[in-house]
Automatic annotation (TrEMBL):
It comes from Grammatophora oceanica. The chain crosses the membrane at residues 6-30. InterPro entries: EF_Hand_1_Ca_BS. This is Uncharacterized protein. The keyword Transmembrane helix applies. Keywords: Coiled coil, Membrane, Transmembrane, Transmembrane helix. Residues 38-79 form a coiled coil.
Length: 175
């Protein structure tokens, strides 16, 4: 319609108004895409923040588990020492004492296996959540995220160069 007005009435005002109105459509489209991009960035930021919060909670839970298991191991060692003392003072048979020690060792091994299972579960969770584009390939940016998350676990140390060499470009399933 602005082109028809320019052709029919060739005054400067009509020409300028036609040019400006013709430019408004692409400009409005450009502004709309910018608004859409901002909304997508906000959504991404919220998703990342939720993941950080979840990982922080997992890290705290792991820290508590480690502290509890450490305390339990200490208590078991004290019990073992107490049993040793009791068996010596009461003259109990060495066989009974050995059975009790073996039982305590079994309990300790079970507790260590549970701790390993919890740590492995959290590491697997970190690996899966680090695959941001869900293509089951760990690229360089995703390895950076994975290293940062793993280093956030209390007591875990990562050798960056070896870790990157081992994981960059590999599929999640091969890890």
């Amino acid at each position: 319609t602005s082109l028809a007005a320019i052709i029919i009435n060739q005054s400067a005002v009509v020409i300028l108004a036609g040019i400006f109105s013709s430019a408004m459509g692409p400009y409005a489209y450009y502004q709309q895409t910018r608004l859409t991009d901002i909304k997508a960035l906000q959504d991404t930021h919220e998703a990342v923040q939720e993941e950080v919060d979840r990982l922080h909670a997992s890290n705290e839970r792991l820290g508590k588990n480690v502290n509890e298991l450490t305390a339990t191991v200490d208590r078991l060692e004290e019990v073992e020492q107490a049993l040793d003392t009791i068996s010596k003072t009461q003259g109990k048979s060495v066989n009974q004492f050995a059975e009790q020690v073996e039982k305590n060792k079994s309990i300790l091994k079970t507790m260590q296996a549970n701790l390993k299972g919890t740590v492995l579960q959290n590491l697997l969770s970190i690996v899966m959540s680090s695959d941001a584009d869900k293509d089951n390939i760990v690229d360089a940016e995703e390895v950076d995220t994975m290293i940062r998350r793993i280093e956030g676990i209390s007591g875990v140390e990562v050798h960056d160069d070896r870790f990157r060499k081992a994981f960059s470009g590999n599929s999640v399933g091969s890890l």
